Amino acid sequence: MLKGKTALVTGSTSGIGLGIAKALARQGANIVLNGFGDAEGPKAEVAALGVKVGYHGADMSKPAEIEAMMHYVAETFGRTDVLVNNAGIQHVAKVEDFPPERWDAVIAINLTSAFHTTRLALPAMKKANWGRIINVASVHGLVASAEKAAYVAAKHGIVGLTKVTALETATTGITCNAICPGWVLTPLVQKQVDAKAAALGVSNEESKKQLLAEKEPSLQFTTPEELGELAVFFCSDAGKNVRGVAWNMDGGWVAQ
Ligand code: NAD
Known about the structure:
By secondary structure, the protein is an alpha/beta fold. Helices cover about 50% and strands about 15% of the residues. The chain is built from 8 helices and 7 strands. Strands 3-2-1-4-5-6-7 form a 7-stranded parallel β-sheet, with helices on both faces. The radius of gyration is 18 Å and the shape is globular. Nicotinamide-adenine-dinucleotide (NAD) binds next to helix 1, helix 4 and helix 6.
């Protein structure tokens, strides 16, 4: 379905980003990975699916590095056909205790980076009259939780950016939508599981159960593979008139 197309997935050396990158690769898309830590393992996992793989280590909090990454994709692969804005971090603290530099980092990585990649990807997508922009928001783009001020603000912001981008491209072959996962057991969430286990003096398993029970009625984690299949749907021809939605995959979290 995506043969000959190139997908750039930010923050894809781990977790949800890597899951989405692999799902798009299974559809034939060439993949550009981005993110910190080991890139060789993820590159090999994607290459094993029979597509071309690139990598750029841009720090998504730095606009000049984001620009360099977008040039790299254009020069190496021709164009970004599918843009998945996924890189994200979390910081948990009450508003009055929230370190201002953590606020700035969360907003820069979880929100502003998507503005930069989107503004830089759109001209070539418009020329081709085809493109898919998928913003990985969160249930926290739809509802709030205590002690996540920067994250909730950034995720509500990216849902807004999604809607504006969808409106500005509504008469073209470009769509923009957001995915809103509930709990997904990635390193980002494992840190919160660990913090709860330490605070309550309970096991890792018990901490996971309690985390799910607080918010997610299905009592099950959503998986990167499931989110990857939702991204594939947004890229499909059947998804071409799905525009500006914030689609939750959250075990019933925001139905409550
Ligand atoms: P993760 O920690 O497994 O992966 C985050 C990725 O972002 C990694 O590849 C990391 O290297 C990269 N990254 C972090 N800072 C970066 C920076 N400055 N520049 C470039 N890359 C950077 O986390 P995840 O759970 O897979 O999260 C991916 C996205 O999904 C995030 O936007 C997160 O907010 C969102 N999300 C996660 C959950 C969940 O339960 N895990 C739920 C809803 C939404």
